[in-house]
Design goal:
It comes from Ulvibacterium marinum. One of its GO terms (molecular function) is transferase activity. Keywords: Ribonucleoprotein, Ribosomal protein, RNA-binding, rRNA-binding. It is a single chain. The chain is 2% helix and 23% strand. It is mainly β. It has one helix spanning 208-213; strands at 3-5, 17-19, 34-36, 61-63, 76-82, 91-96, 101-105, 115-116, 129-131, 140-142, 162-168, 171-175, 181-185, 189-192, 268-270. Strand 5 (76-82) and strand 6 form a beta hairpin.
């Protein structure tokens, strides 16, 4: 994977850094695994704006992703590595030995024509999904379940990975991408390897219009508002705005919003880094 810096033939390209897309092997999606995707524009069922700075953007179709990896003990061949407009990671198109096709999140180093599988007794190789109870300690993993059979919910975005640290009883200790160390049931599935497209963090838009293509509208700085519009608004001249907080008054830096009585707190061994 690589990134490209463009020759600045327009002002918008002067600082733009784009993905090289050299890991992709197909430019057309699998039609049988596409679904319509409706935009809300940040509005709820009453048509009221509940999320600001959203709207517009290029039309997309959803790629149906197999997060559960529940087709076990059946070998699959990687047919192509594809772009997905709905996520930062690349996706892989699998074709199982019985002819069924599915999309999965692609791991770094996954190659076309590679054989991958999921389930108990599977070798801990790149792209294979197996329970935490069978993964060697110290292995880099991604696409991790939180409850057995739920489907992958953690470490799914571009370049992210977790590490299996220890096992004791029915729980495994996993160090997550945020830095949090947490207990997860050993029966939960995880995929071997880090998620693809690790260069995503190096991409620079170059112009405001690219954010509009992604469905993001302009954001007004709170310190530029009036006191009636935001807690950080108002003041004479260029006032800094006081303590950083949201429009609803919730502090923005260092304030813990997680409930102290949340039931799953007992599974967190070490909190994420501040």
């Amino acid at each position: 994977m690589s990134v490209r810096k463009l020759k600045p033939i327009t002002p918008g390209q002067r600082f733009r850094v784009v993905n090289g897309f050299d890991a992709l092997t197909a430019d057309k999606p699998e039609k049988s695994l596409l679904a319509p995707l409706k935009k809300s524009g940040g509005r709820n069922s009453q048509g009221k704006m509940t999320i600001r700075h959203r709207g517009g953007g290029h039309k997309r179709r959803y790629r149906i992703i197999d997060f559960k990896r529940d087709k076990q003990d059946v070998a699959a061949t990687v047919k192509s590595i594809q772009y997905d407009p709905n996520r930062t990671a690349f996706i892989a198109l699998l074709e199982y030995s019985d002819g069924e096709k599915r999309h999965v999140i692609a791991q770094n180093g996954l190659q076309v024509d590679q054989k991958i599988s999921s389930g108990k007794g599977v070798a801990p190789e790149i792209g294979n999904a197996l329970p935490l109870s069978e993964i060697p300690l110290g292995t880099i993993i991604s696409c991790i379940e939180l409850r057995p059979g739920q489907g992958a919910v953690m470490a799914r975005s571009a370049g992210t990975f977790a590490q299996l640290m220890a096992r004791e009883g029915k729980y495994a200790t996993v160090k997550l991408p945020s830095g949090e160390t947490r207990l997860i049931l050993s029966g939960c599935l995880a995929t071997i390897g880090a998620v693809s497209n690790s260069d995503h963090q190096l991409i620079v838009s170059g112009k405001a219009g690219r954010s509009r293509w992604l469905g993001r509208r302009p954001r007004t700085r709170p310190v530029a508002m009036n006191p009636v519009d935001h807690p950080m608004g108002g003041g004479e001249g260029r006032a800094s705005g006081g303590h950083p907080r949201s429009k609803n008054g919730i502090p923005a830096k260092g304030y813990r919003t997680r409930s102290k009585t949340k039931d799953t707190n007992r599974y967190i061994i070490e909190r994420r880094k501040k």
